Amino acid sequence: MRDAGGLCGACWGRMTLISPPVCHRLGTPFAIPPFPGDGPPVSAEALADPPAFDRARAAVLFGAVSRDLVHRLKYGDRLDLAAPMARLMAQAAPDLVREADVIVPVPLHLFRLWRRRFNQSALLARSLAAASGKPVHLEALQRVRPTPSQVALSRAERRANVSGAFRVPAMAAPAVAGRRVLLVDDVLTTGATLDACARMLRRSGARGVDALTFARVVEDW
Fold this sequence. Notes:
Layout: H1 9-14, H2 44-48, E1 55-61, H3 64-75, H4 82-92, H5 94-99, E2 102-105, H6 110-116, H7 120-132, E3 142-143, H8 155-162, E4 166-167, H9 173-176, E5 180-188, H10 192-203, E6 208-216
Parallel strand pairs: 1-6, 2-5, 5-6
Antiparallel strand pairs: 3-4
Helix pairs in contact: 4-7
């Protein structure tokens, strides 16, 4: 990770890429291959509590190396990491990227954006757009209130924390209405943030909403 825009062989070897079979809705890898069925496999979690987004995918499991990459991007000013991370994301979900009409990053609240100086999700979205040729709309979503960090919160607490935290500005609604939106974020933990964003996009007329992240947390993996 010392070289700009690239990953060393040691880092590659210590990251776990997510590969099929995965839950069609949540993108969670199956520890045991599911039985063949009439359609794509869907996990019990997705059936019990369907998300507002159609499909979620991630490039790698959240572990020591992927966590370090995310932290270096967010807190270490390693903006050069956005491009290789976005390439991994595109390789993990070519169908989601291909079918997207517009790419939209999960927004930061203005206070946090001012402190950090950039939105890491926007950097990933812009890199993904540059690589795919898809349009990106950085202002399609706004975070209208500051939310405490989701770290250490339970699933229910995360959902309550981001409830009502997002909106689609009136000026951005035409860019969303009737279109398939690809939401981009750095890490998927419980999906609460992506779910809250997807609900707002659907209220503004989005034809569909998919989600793509660099890493995802999988318990007991």
